[in-house]
Write a structure and sequence with these properties.
InterPro entries: Aldolase_TIM (IPR013785), DUS-like_FMN-bd (IPR035587), DUS_fam (IPR001269), tRNA-dHydroUridine_Synthase_C (IPR024036)
Strand content: 15-25%
CATH architecture of the largest domain: Alpha-Beta Barrel
Oligomer: single chain
CATH superfamily of the largest domain: Aldolase class I
Enzyme class: oxidoreductase
GO molecular function: flavin adenine dinucleotide binding; tRNA binding; tRNA dihydrouridine synthase activity
Pfam family, one: Dus
CATH class of the largest domain: Alpha Beta
Helix content: 40-55%
Strand order of the largest sheet: 1-2-3-4-5-6-7-8
Order of helices and strands: EHEHHHEHEHHEHEHEHEHHHHH
Number of helices: 15
Catalytic activity: a 5,6-dihydrouridine in tRNA + NADP(+) = a uridine in tRNA + NADPH + H(+); a 5,6-dihydrouridine in tRNA + NAD(+) = a uridine in tRNA + NADH + H(+)
Length: 331
C-alpha cells in the first residue's frame, strides 16, 4: 500500500537534517510525540554517489541505520519512515533505491532537490537541480523504476530567483506521490522569511495538474498550532518541521505547555544513552553537543550546566555533569 494515498490531512513531519535526524534522535522525537501528532520521519541526507562507491558505501550507509527500538516505536505510533537521498547521477539513484527497498525497512524514498549548501550546489546536486529540470526528471524516473516504494521530492521555490510556476508544474508531471515545498530560493539559504504565498501558488498548480499528489509546506513553522493554521490558510496537506524542533523538542506534543527541568534533563540523558549505544566511538561525540542547548534552557542554572556539557567528551561525562548539577540544585 502507498501510505501517501491515505495519510491523514493535515499531517506533520520532521524534516531530514544533516547530523540531526539519525536513528537516535528520531527515537527521542517519537517518544515525546503525542499519538497522531507526528506522521512522517526522514533520515539524514544520504549520498547516492557514496552509496555506490566501493569504498564510500560503508562510510555512508550508517545514515540509513534504523535501530530495532525505533522500528518498534514507528509501528506502535503508526509513523512512516522515509529515506532521503541526493546526488546527480540517475543510475546511482536507481541502485541506491534498490538497496533501500531490498536491504532496509524504510517505508518510502524522498529525493533532495532543496538543500542550498554551496559545496553541494556547486556540484550540481540538490537545489541546483531546479536549474536542471531535464536531469531532475531523469532522476525521478530512474528512482521510480527501481522500486515500488512511495516516492516524494523536497525542493524550493527557485534557485537564483523564484520560479514556482514553471518548476512545480514540471515536477507535478512526474510520477511522484508527494512534493514538499520550502518557501525560499537557494540563494536565500535560511535567511529572510519563507514565502508561504508561493507555497499556496504551488497548491493551486497541484489542484489543477495533479490533485492526487500530496503537497507539504515547509519553512518557519514554530508551533503545532501554527502548522494547523498554515494548512488552513494556504491549502497544504501538511507541514514539515525543521529548525522548530530545536526550539521545542516536544513540538509534536502540543498539549504539553510547561516542561520542567527534570523532564528536559531526562530527555537529554535518554538521547545521550541512545546516541552512545548506537554509535559508540564510530561517530564524533561533538555531534551530540549541538543538542544540549535544546534541553538546557528556562530553568535555574541552565546556562552553567550547558557550559559544562559543552566540554564533555563522552556519555559518562554527560551523566556525571547532570548528576553533580542535580545534587547541587536540591541543596
Amino acid at each position: 500500500m502507498n501510505f501517501w494515498h491515505n495519510i491523514q490531512t493535515p499531517n506533520f513531519s520532521l524534516a531530514p537534517m544533516e547530523d540531526v535526524t539519525d536513528t537516535s534522535f528520531r527515537e527521542v522525537v517519537l517518544k515525546s510525540a503525542a499519538s497522531g501528532k507526528l506522521n512522517l520521519l526522514f533520515s539524514e541526507f544520504t549520498s547516492v554517489e557514496g552509496m555506490c562507491h566501493p569504498v564510500g558505501h560503508d562510510k555512508v550507509k550508517h545514515r540509513l541505520q534504523i535501530n530495532e527500538s525505533e522500528k518498534k516505536l514507528l509501528k506502535e505510533k503508526n509513523v512512516k519512515l522515509i529515506a532521503q537521498i541526493w546526488g546527480k547521477d540517475p543510475e546511482k539513484y536507481y541502485k541506491t533505491a534498490q538497496y533501500i527497498a531490498n536491504e532496509t525497512d524504510f517505508d518510502g524514498i524522498d529525493i533532495n532537490m532543496g538543500c542550498p549548501v554551496k559545496n553541494v550546489v556547486k556540484n550540481g546536486c540538490c537545489s541546483a537541480l531546479i536549474a536542471q529540470p531535464d536531469l531532475a526528471k531523469e532522476i525521478i524516473l530512474a528512482t521510480k523504476e527501481a522500486t515500488n516504494l512511495p516516492l516524494s521530492v523536497k525542493t524550493r521555490i527557485g534557485f537564483k530567483e523564484v520560479v514556482t510556476e514553471s518548476w512545480v508544474s514540471h515536477l507535478l508531471q512526474t510520477p511522484i506521490d508527494a512534493l514538499t515545498i520550502h518557501g525560499r530560493i537557494q540563494k536565500q539559504m535560511s535567511e529572510g522569511l519563507a514565502d508561504w504565498n508561493e507555497i499556496a501558488k504551488a497548491v493551486q498548480l497541484r489542484n489543477k495538474l495533479a490533485p492526487h499528489i500530496k503537497l507539504i509546506g515547509n519553512g518557519d513553522v514554530e508551533s503545532y498550532q501554527e502548522g494547523l493554521e498554515k494548512c488552513e490558510t494556504y491549502g497544504v496537506d501538511g507541514v514539515m518541521i525543521g529548525r522548530g524542533i530545536f526550539k521545542n523538542p516536544w513540538f509534536f506534543h502540543p498539549e504539553k505547555k510547561e516542561i520542567g527541568m527534570e523532564e528536559k534533563l531526562d530527555m537529554m540523558l535518554e538521547h545521550t544513552r541512545l546516541f552512545d549505544k548506537t554509535w559508540g566511538n564510530s561517530k564524533n561525540f561533538a555531534i551530540l553537543r549541538r543538542f544540549f542547548k535544546i534541553y538546557t534552557n528556562e530553568f535555574r542554572g541552565a546556562s552553567s550546566l550547558r557550559n559544562d556539557l559543552m566540554n564533555t567528551r563522552n556519555a559518562e561525562e554527560v551523566y556525571e555533569a547532570v548528576r553533580k548539577f542535580t545534587v547541587n540544585s536540591y541543596k
